[in-house]
Design brief:
The complex is a heterodimer of chains A (about 350) and B (about 110). Chain A is mostly beta strands. Chain A has one helix at about 1-30, and strands at about 35-40, 40-45, 50-60, 65-70, 75-80, 85-90, 95-100, 105-115, 120-130, 135-140, 145-150, 155-160, 165-170, 175-180, 185, 190-195, 210, 225-230, 240-245, 255-260, 265-270, 275-280, 280-285, 290-300, 305-310, 315-320, 325-330, 335-340, 350. Chain B has 3 helices and no strands. Chain B has helices at about 10-25, 65-70, 95-100. The chains are: A mainly beta (about 350), B mainly alpha (about 110). At the A-B interface, strand 8 and strand 17 of A face helix 2 and helix 3 of B.
Chain lengths: ~350, ~110
C-alpha cells in the first residue's frame, strides 16, 4: 500500500514536471515584434503573440520615417525631424540612446535611404543637402555617407544620380545597393557605381520604363525587398504591373510581370518566398512561383505598407489612420484591429530580427 | 526665347543648365529635389483624380491620407509641408481622423 502511494506520488511529480516543461515551451514560443513610427513623435512596438501594442517609445524629433533594426534586435535606428537626424533607440530600455545630426552649419540636410552594415558599427545614409546662402538656396549633389556609430564621424563615399530613396547592404561588405530611378551597385572600396540595372531609364521599343516607389521596405522575414512596378507596354499601349524583387544578400534582381495594373504602394514576401502581398486600396496576393495574381480583396481603407508573421499566417497592415489591421493570409479575412496611439504617416514598418525575441 | 542672350556668369550657367535638362532624357524638376520620387513620377495618385481620371484609385478615405501627404510633401499645395516648413503642425493631433479639430490653419508668412 505504501509502495503504491509512493508510486502514485512519483507519477504525480513526473506529470507535474512534464506540464511545467510544456508550459515553459509555450512561454518560449513567442510571436514576432514589429516597429513603426507614428505622429507626432513616437515609435510603437507590436507583439504578434498578443497582437497588441506592447511599447510606445517617444522620440526626440518628429515623425519617424526610416526604421533600421540592428541584427540583435536590441536597437532601431530611426530618421526623425523631417529626415534631418538619426535617433538610436534602445528597445530594451525604451529610451533614445543617441541622436546623430549630420547637417553642417548653414546647410539643410534630409536623409532619404539608410542602412546598417553587416557588422552593425556603421550606417550608410543617402543625403540631400541644400546650402542656405544669404541670397540663394544652392542644391548640392546627392551623396552617400558612411556614419561611424561610435564616433559619429562621417565619410563621403560618392555622389549619386538624383532620386535614390533606399539603400541596402548585401552580404559582400564591399558593396552597397541604392534604389531610385534605377538600381545602382556601388563598390565601397572603389567608391563608385560599378553596375546599374535600368528601371526608369530602361525604356526601349519593346519595354516601357519601370516606375517604382521604393519607400516602404520590409524584408526581414524573407530577405527579399519586393517593390511593385508599373509600366506602359509600348506595343499594347496598356499600363501593366509587376514586382521588382531584390535579394538583399546577393543583390540579384528579379522582375515578374503580373498583368493589368492594380495600384499598389508596397509589397511583402512570405518567409518561404512563395507568396507576395501587395497593398494600397486592395490586398493583392501573388503566387511568386507561378508568377500570377491569385486573389484581389478590396480593403476598407488605404494601406501604405504590409508586413507578415514569420510563419506566414498573419498579415499586419497599418492604415493611413491610427490603427493596424491583422488579416489571415489563408482566408484574407480581418482577424483583429489594433488601435495605435497615432497615425503612422509614411513610416517604414519593420519586423525585428529573430534574435530580438525574448 | 532664343533672342534673349545671357550677359553675366550666373545667366550663362542657368542657360547651360537649362540646355542640359531639356536635352537630357533624365531631366529633373529641381524644385522638388527634396522629394526624389515626386508624385508625378510614380504610380501615386493624389486627392484629385487617379491615373484613370477617376477617384476609385485614390487613398481612401481622403482624411486618413492627410499625414501621408504632409509627411513628405506629396501634395504641398493642399497641406502644409513637414519636410521644410511646418514640423510642429501635427503636434496636437496624433490621429488626424480623430483629432483633426486640433490642427491649425497655416497662412504664408507676411500675409
Amino acid at each position: 500500500m505504501r509502495a503504491n502511494a509512493l508510486f502514485s506520488r512519483l507519477l504525480g511529480v513526473i506529470a507535474l514536471l512534464l506540464f511545467a516543461s510544456c508550459a515553459s515551451g509555450q512561454v518560449q514560443e513567442r510571436g514576432d515584434l514589429f516597429v513603426i513610427g507614428i505622429h507626432p513623435h513616437s515609435i510603437v512596438v507590436i507583439d504578434s503573440a498578443r497582437d497588441e501594442v506592447v511599447a510606445q517609445i517617444p522620440t526626440k524629433g518628429h515623425t519617424p520615417k526610416e526604421m533600421v533594426p540592428s541584427p540583435d534586435g536590441k536597437r532601431v535606428y530611426v530618421t526623425t525631424e523631417a529626415r534631418q537626424q538619426i535617433e538610436v533607440i534602445n528597445l530594451t530600455t525604451h529610451a533614445v540612446e543617441d541622436v546623430i545630426n549630420l547637417a553642417a552649419p548653414g546647410t539643410r540636410l534630409n536623409i532619404f535611404g539608410m542602412t546598417l552594415n553587416r557588422k552593425a558599427d556603421r550606417l550608410f545614409v543617402h543625403v540631400l543637402q541644400t546650402k542656405l546662402l544669404p541670397d540663394e538656396y544652392r542644391v548640392l549633389p546627392p551623396q552617400i555617407w558612411s556614419v561611424d556609430l561610435r564616433t559619429h564621424q562621417t565619410q563621403k563615399i560618392l555622389e549619386l544620380p538624383e532620386a535614390v530613396v533606399s539603400l541596402f547592404a548585401p552580404t559582400d561588405e564591399n558593396r552597397l545597393i541604392a534604389w531610385g530611378r534605377d538600381l545602382y551597385y556601388i563598390d565601397l572600396t572603389q567608391k563608385r557605381i560599378t553596375g546599374k540595372i535600368p528601371l526608369m531609364s530602361g525604356d526601349s521599343p519593346n519595354r516601357g520604363a519601370l516606375d517604382t516607389l521604393p519607400f516602404f521596405l520590409q524584408y526581414e522575414q524573407s530577405g527579399i525587398v519586393s517593390i511593385p512596378y508599373f509600366t506602359s507596354d509600348p506595343i499594347l499601349k496598356k499600363v501593366l504591373m509587376g514586382l521588382a524583387n531584390l535579394n538583399v544578400d546577393t543583390g540579384k534582381l528579379e522582375l515578374l510581370e503580373l498583368g493589368p495594373a492594380i495600384p499598389a504602394y508596397s509589397s511583402v514576401v512570405s518567409s518561404d518566398r512563395k507568396r507576395a502581398y501587395l497593398v494600397m486600396n486592395q490586398l493583392v496576393v501573388v503566387d511568386l512561383e507561378g508568377k500570377k495574381v491569385l486573389a484581389v480583396k478590396n480593403l476598407e481603407r488605404t494601406k501604405y505598407v504590409a508586413n507578415i508573421s514569420r510563419d506566414g499566417k498573419k498579415l499586419y497592415l497599418p492604415s493611413a489612420g491610427a490603427f493596424l489591421d491583422i488579416y489571415d493570409t489563408q482566408t484574407l479575412q480581418m482577424i483583429k484591429r489594433v488601435s495605435l496611439p497615432g497615425d503612422p504617416g509614411v513610416s517604414q514598418f519593420r519586423s525585428l530580427p529573430a534574435a530580438a525575441m525574448p | 526665347m532664343k533672342h534673349i542672350k545671357p550677359l553675366n556668369k550666373k545667366a550663362k550657367l542657368l542657360e547651360k543648365k537649362e540646355g542640359e535638362q531639356t536635352g537630357s532624357k533624365s531631366a529633373q524638376v529641381r524644385a522638388m529635389q527634396n522629394q526624389p520620387l515626386g508624385c508625378s513620377l510614380v504610380f501615386d495618385p493624389g486627392w484629385e483624380t487617379d491615373s484613370a481620371g477617376s477617384v476609385t484609385g485614390l487613398c481612401q478615405p481622403v482624411e486618413s491620407d492627410l499625414y501621408g501627404c504632409y509627411d513628405d510633401c506629396w501634395w504641398p499645395a493642399q497641406v502644409p509641408d513637414q519636410l521644410t516648413n511646418y514640423l510642429e503642425w501635427s503636434d496636437k493631433c496624433a490621429a488626424a481622423e480623430r483629432d483633426w479639430r486640433n490642427l491649425d490653419l497655416i497662412f504664408p508668412e507676411g500675409k
